[in-house]
């Protein structure tokens, strides 16, 4: 007579093996992630962004897209809430204040676009996610363009540069998902 444990093991062991294979086969390997970062405009930023996230080792392309979007949302949030208010306190020139406040508004709107891009990716609507990320990139560029037009130095040029690079990384990944 066959014991209940034997029957259970006949069912469970193949499921465990299958799930392990599925996890390994869907995860993006380090070589592939490295090739994505080499396509970016800033290899170090790309590598460090993914290295800082504990989901990266088991991530598939969908997850990598969401990790890159999340990193950008966090950067924008920190800039909007902490960095820009501190800079505004130090500015005396009304034009400088207006430019930075415009950037703060653009960043707030870009953060909302990226949040919606993240949500669209969860629903696997990558065309919508890509369009929303494009909108966020344009809002980021508007900040730089306003400073360039007035020939005034941007106190957050490093942030706008980083936001643009992170969005480009998201584009690289989404273009792998939907060629």
From TrEMBL:
It comes from the Eukaryota. InterPro entries: Invertase/methylesterase_inhib (IPR035513), PCW_Enzyme_Inhibitor (IPR052421), Pectinesterase_inhib_dom (IPR006501), PMEI_plant (IPR034086). GO terms for molecular function: pectinesterase inhibitor activity. Residues 28-173 form the Pectinesterase inhibitor domain. Residues 1-27 form the signal peptide. Belongs to the PMEI family. This is Pectinesterase inhibitor domain-containing protein. It comes from Quercus lobata.
């Amino acid at each position: 007579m066959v014991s209940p444990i034997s029957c259970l093991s006949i069912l469970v062991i193949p499921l465990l093996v299958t799930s392990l294979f599925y996890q390994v086969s869907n995860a993006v390997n380090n070589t592939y992630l490295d090739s994505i970062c080499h396509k970016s405009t800033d290899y170090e930023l790309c590598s460090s962004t993914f290295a800082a996230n504990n989901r990266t080792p088991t991530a598939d392309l969908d997850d990598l897209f969401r990790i890159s979007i999340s990193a950008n949302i966090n950067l924008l949030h920190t800039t909007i809430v902490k960095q820009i208010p501190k800079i505004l306190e130090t500015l005396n020139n009304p034009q400088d204040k207006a430019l930075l406040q415009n950037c703060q508004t653009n960043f707030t709107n870009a953060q909302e676009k990226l949040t919606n891009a993240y949500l669209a990716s969860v629903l696997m609507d990558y065309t919508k996610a890509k369009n929303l990320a494009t909108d966020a990139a344009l809002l980021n560029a508007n900040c730089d363009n306003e400073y360039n037009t007035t020939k005034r130095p941007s106190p957050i040029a490093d942030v706008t540069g980083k936001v643009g690079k992170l969005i480009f990384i998201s584009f690289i990944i989404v273009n792998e998902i939907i060629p």
